[in-house]
């Protein structure tokens, strides 16, 4: 059965709603609990789950990739490790995710990312889409 994400699940996983409340209200389901701050989660209709780790200060969260697909209880860099390998001035913003601040799966079925294009603010923002034509 595909994983279903509810808004209440995100709230519960973020710690804004206690697990006790989630256990007593049948509308609330904790879908995922993370040890690393995250600022967005998206799912596809078939249940693929994408997580965006928070990158508040311009650095990668605990040296983790920024965008992962959650597979078998593990965050797998998405679209791959190379795109999630930004290291500063030696990285090319055209081929790496620099500082993604939001993501969503759109009605077109694509994963859309908004990337600042630089570790700070003030640069042109980059809108990236990743084609999710095949549901793995």
TrEMBL record:
Signal is among the record's keywords: yes
Keywords: Signal
InterPro entries, per the entry: 6-blade_b-propeller_TolB-like (IPR011042)
Superkingdom: Eukaryota
Residues spanning the signal sequence: 1-22
Protein name per the record: Uncharacterized protein
Organism: Mycena albidolilacea
Lineage, top ranks: Eukaryota, Fungi, Dikarya, Basidiomycota, Agaricomycotina
């Amino acid at each position: 059965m595909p994983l279903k994400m509810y808004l209440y699940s995100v709230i519960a996983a973020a710690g804004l709603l206690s697990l006790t409340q989630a256990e007593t209200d049948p509308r609330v389901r904790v879908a995922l609990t993370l040890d690393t701050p995250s600022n967005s989660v998206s799912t596809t209709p078939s249940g693929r789950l994408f997580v965006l780790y928070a990158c508040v200060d311009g650095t990668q969260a605990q040296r983790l990739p920024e965008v992962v697909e959650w597979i078998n209880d593990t965050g797998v860099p998405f679209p791959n490790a190379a795109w999630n390998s930004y290291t500063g001035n030696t990285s090319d913003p055209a081929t790496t995710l620099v500082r993604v601040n939001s993501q969503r799966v759109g009605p077109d079925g694509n994963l859309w990312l908004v990337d600042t294009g630089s570790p700070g603010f003030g640069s042109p923002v980059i809108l990236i889409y990743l084609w999710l034509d095949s549901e793995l």
